[in-house]
Specification:
Length: 387
Amino acid sequence: MPASPSGAHGQPLARSRGTDECGRIPACHRPAHQRARHRVGSRAPELRRAPQGSAAARDALHLRAVPAQFRRLRRRPPPARLSYARAAPRWLAADGGGVGRTASRRLLALCLLGSLSAHAASPVWAIRGAHNTVYLAGSVHLLPAEDAVLPQGFDRAYADSSKLVMELDLGKLDPLEAAGWMIEHAALPAGTTLRGMLGEQRYSRVSAAAAELGAPIELLDGQAPWAVGVELADLEFLHQGFDPEQGVEQQLVRRTHADGKPTAGLETLGEELGSLEALASEDQMRFLDQTVSELKRSQEELEEVLRAWRRGDAATLSRLLAREFRSFPALYRPLVTMRNQRWLPQVEQLLREDRNAFVVVGALHLVGDGGLLELLRKDGFTAQQLN
């Protein structure tokens, strides 16, 4: 297997370990109850310079990039109205990527990623290098099964690029590795329970929410609060009709497999999900509280969010989601700002190459202060939005 392309300062693009690197999961790491393209050249007609005076979304939707079927910690009955065939294989995510899948503003801010201009346009941008073009797209890591066609711009960017780069290299992600990471890192220490951490009142609210989604609290009691929030969010999105197999990255990865196009990742599984694990206990519990309180987001509001993403309507996305996520800086910094800083040298290395690349990340990573588009502009690169 060829080596991963190197980033600035010799930093390679992250790549998942293969199955042969994954050993058996020691019992001590299990929860207690489970032991025993060719450059663009002159400006293409689809390209236009982004209007400098337009309102830009400070945030947008961001679903974690890791599919949920890779994150499952244990077998469990499917939630009500979902078959085993639909409930069993799903993304670990993070994408998503990020954080949990809940129908809340904050969880959507962690899950679905929107576009970047207040004008109707594609959530795909073209950045010129000296000899190539890197396309940078804002992703929605999950899409409704009945409306999974990708917005304009994605097909052109994919066809014009020699490789696909995502937050995680989903083309090589090993489900066993992902499941093992979750088992080891999401489990509470021996002698610690979710009930003990949350207290009776909090625990009762979480238990009721879990039961309503078809996940008995006993199956979650050995997990850290951040992991429980992610699990509940996954289930709620499934109830809302989102399909992890129809997310942007999943659709593009299937194309790469058919076309023989290489894939790469900007970070490892541990780096992505570790952003949640590293949250202080109080922030984890706050994350869980808000997940539970906002689970029942209306179907109409979810549809409005998706319409805004497809149109590139950042003003609407910002109104719906940005304020909620910005109010949680303890979560925003590790999940967005710090990851952008880690990814920037790798994107700039791609811009020094001779062939085009298509980079797909949650759109929240593209916009606002500290967003990748701003960081690239500061370093002298020009971004043009596909329409």
